[in-house]
Amino acid sequence: MCCNDEIRKNFTYQNLDIDLSLVKDLKFFDPHIHMVSRTTDDYQAMADAGIVAIIEPAFWLGQPRTGLDSFRDYYSSLIGWERFRASQFGIKHYCTIGLNSREANNEPLAEQVMELLPRVIYKEGVVGIGEIGFDDQTKAEEKYYRLQLELAKTASLPVQVHTPHRDKKQGTTKSMKIALEHGLDPGMVIIDHNNEETVKEVLDLGFWAAFTIYPFTKMGNERMVEIVKKYGSERIMINSAADWGISDPLAVPKTAALMILKGISLPDVEKVTYRNAISAFGQSGMINEADFSTPAEIDQSASYQKNTILRGGQQPRIDKSSIVIS
Ligand SMILES: [Zn+2]
């Protein structure tokens, strides 16, 4: 049995049996996922579920960085190694580069990062400045958010905005107000982590509204179905934001299956799980759909700076249908 069939079997979501075969002919683009924290098994499962392209925003590692070199190496891994690793599973990897809001509060280090950014953002595969914005909504966060909006304008790159989990409504409104103050075209700004309270204002002001599907918490995918029913599919996109915390790298295909089950039309599903991400981030000039719209030839024995995803003697591509590990 091919691994696709294995992965596309029934799964349970909040007591609903959803069949991933509902989406077996669809392609997905997850525009927010932190793959450095995920395993090769995740890449395999994502490829098998139909995810063909992803965007990895630069963010916080879970503990504070103590020097510029960790930022430098992290950005290099987003542009180099992680891009290669994704390619070994037939997934096209893009990234957004920026100073995250939490670490903007370490001002001496933030100053150094701001000097580094212009040397990174023009590299191949960088489709925006992100994820930037507010966490605790401090003065330092605002300062570096503004500076990075200016950088995005100079570079003509889209901006991926992280909205705060605390005081979300106020933080989202403030993020958009500041972007407009700096003269950014709302069509170049993707406001992320929306919910029912923020979506209307974001769409009314002409920004893109991204939604993160978090398991067990704020934004489950049944609520997402209701949002698409109410607001349609224009300028809306969904993502997993999967990282080192409890999260689900298959959130996009699972939500697509649930949408189909709940009667959302196929063109609308396609827009919020694939097309809109390409339209928004494609404004960087870095996304060529032909790179992922047809299945890629994968050579898992290829190497990146002499490193491969294979360990001594391993054969490329693991047969997931076998319980024997040989
Ligand atoms: Zn994130």
TrEMBL record:
Keywords, sorted A to Z: Hydrolase
Domain of life, source organism: Bacteria
Gene Ontology molecular function terms on file: hydrolase activity, acting on ester bonds
Coiled coil feature spans: none
Gene3D superfamilies per record: Metal-dependent hydrolases
CDD domains: metallo-dependent_hydrolases (cd01292)
InterPro entries linked to this entry: Metal_Hydrolase (IPR032466), TatD-like (IPR001130), UCP005295 (IPR012022)
Protein's name according to its UniProt entry: Hydrolase TatD
Organism whose genome encodes this protein: Mucilaginibacter agri
